[in-house]
Amino acid sequence: MGRTFISILLVCFSFCMLKGSTVTENYNFKNIVIYWDASRAQHTNDHQKEFDFLDNYFNRYPNSKVKLIIFNTHIISEKDMMIKSSDWDVLKAILSNVTYDGVANYKLIKTDHSVDELMLFSSAAAYLGEIDVDLYAPRIVALASSKKPNIRLLYELAFYSGGYYANLTEVDIPKTVQALQEKKTLPRLQFVKDKSTTNQLISGFVYSNDEPLLNAKISIPKKNIATLSNDQGKYTIEAQAGDEIVYQYNGKKTSTIILNNEKTINVALVDTDTTLETVFIKSEVKTTANNVLIGDKVVDKSSLGYDVQQISSEAISADEVNLGEAMAGKFAGVQMGGGNDPGQMIIRGFDSFTLTNHPLFIIDGIPLPRSRPGNTSPMDLIDPNNIASISVLKGLAATNRYGSEGNSGVVLIKTKTGTSKVLDKPIVEKELQIDYKTYTKPLVVAKPFNSPYQSVLASYSSIDLAYSYFVEQVPQHLNTISFFTESADYFFEQGAKQKGTNALTNLIALFPEDTSILKIVAFKLEQHQVYELAQETYKKIIDKAPTLAQTYLDLANCYATAKNYPEALKLFKAITTNKINAIESFEGLQNQIRNDFKALLKKRDNSWNLNGIPKSLFYTTPQDLRIIIEFSHPQTNYKLQYINPNKNYFILTHTTEENQKTLLNELKEGITSEEFVLSATEKGTWFLNLILPITETIDYENPKFLRIKVYTNYNNSDEKMDTYHINLGRVSGSELFAKFTI
């Protein structure tokens, strides 16, 4: 009897111990999915911080189930594994050997996993697509490890899933893991848009060393709310008297202020290694306005939070006979070129990654061609006696209105007459006249350019070895656009579509703000039928520069080419009815829009919603030839020579010298294409010859691209369309590139 009792006790004790052990094991167990961003933008991240985080995490959860998904433009690998007794060596080995290449495609991130947590290791600095968050998404933990992550995107992604965000370069990692264990929540970020709210709104600017701070955190800890400053350093937050407002930025001293009755608080944060203290500039009432011109708006200078310099016509003397003399010595931090040449001006504090440090000049709202190495724009054509005011914008605010074109600063000139009056050279736009001459050279279409980059890649015995060589060479060619486009062409031609896509989209990671380079990427993606990413690239251009009318038409046509007819129809309707909020008018593109919309409507079936479309768009007129010339960069100079079957030719020009008014209007309206439709032409074989003006600088490292579409027998049953992609950096003088029959 005694033995039986002892046995029962032992069994009960063992069961309790086993049960207790099971509870402990479950408490230390996690089922997670890890999305690891392997794009080029992650190459410089602090990966050791990421490993430190995972080490702490698996020490806290020693037995875990992990699904690892490594991605960039595509899913590179997907692997399930078990972590036992905190041993994550296999996972670490995989992550240590990741090659960072291409751009991140966030559409690949799926949030419908049945797991405890979804971890995203990404800075979100350069990406395409958007994450579609499932209604029942797991807790998302967004982890960055770079100096300038996209905090807003990552923070809100985590917040709305009840998750967590941390930049591992700024936080105490063990405490971050503890916060995850305790399921701490994030304060809600405020981005106040409705100024009619009854709550008190506090606004201002956060800056340091006279430069605005992007993504500075402004929070009221006791209310669990926060916001971030924008690219001008501006913020707005709801607060009341007595609230404690905290200002934080990585590398700067955290500062706190108790709110009284202030409406505006501008904050100058100081470096952590200085003995200086934060400067608060507070205001309860508005002071007398000191207005300055910013883009197309006149604003109070005191509301900006950073320095904008301006002079009026009174500061320009009669003996200053050109723009350079009118500006020389009057703006702090502005260095004129030799002989006071404003075309070679440099605004101190800018460090360009795209080979030019010269500012953008805007005259009466019209951007002028910006100087680049070896190609100085003639700014001295501007009459100083006609200048009403000159403003110089510094800091990130210079890019707010003009995007990447303002990366090196902006000089705003307002004239007295409201038009860009020039000295002694009135702009005369030539009427289109067909003046035939005889073509005397041999009619031989040029062979494709023999790229030195492609020749080296072709010398490798396998496509994988060639790609490994390409990846190794990337650091030596970060500023060479042709290296990426020509290498990508090679991989596409070899049937290695994913490698070609990655090679090309490195440019998005390297130049995420340069809309001209983004357009090159979109052109090339369409060329190689990677339509979905091409569409996302056009969307990115729209996000960066929403006033460029051309991009909306490019996107609509890309939808149509990819046979995504519902989206194409929807966008064409919005364009033709002028429903794009950022665009005042598509006037300069009207003919091209109508012709492209008509081409789309010819593909219609009974499922299409055609309500509201004018009947005129359903009728087409047969023509012999339609040519569309699209250019990646504004202010691209070229001449196109049309050679008919009788070896007679005429030339249509697109140059600053001969078509200055047209090019300025294109800049103003955001147009980067032109269209020609010809009828009653000679039947037979035609040729097209591209001619570069002598003044056009050949630059293979940072080239301009043309995409030329040639429609023969246009709007006929036997219509044919050929597309030619031309890298102007590889054209020496001229290139006979097309041969077709009418």
From TrEMBL:
The keyword Transport applies. GO terms for cellular component: cell outer membrane. It is found in: Cell outer membrane. It comes from the Bacteria. Keywords: Cell outer membrane, Membrane, Receptor, Signal, Transmembrane, Transmembrane beta strand, Transport. Residues 301-410 form the TonB-dependent receptor plug domain. It is a multi-pass membrane protein. GO terms for molecular function: siderophore uptake transmembrane transporter activity. GO terms for biological process: siderophore transmembrane transport. It holds the Pfam family CarbopepD_reg_2. Belongs to the TonB-dependent receptor family. This is TonB-dependent SusC/RagA subfamily outer membrane receptor. It comes from Aquimarina brevivitae.
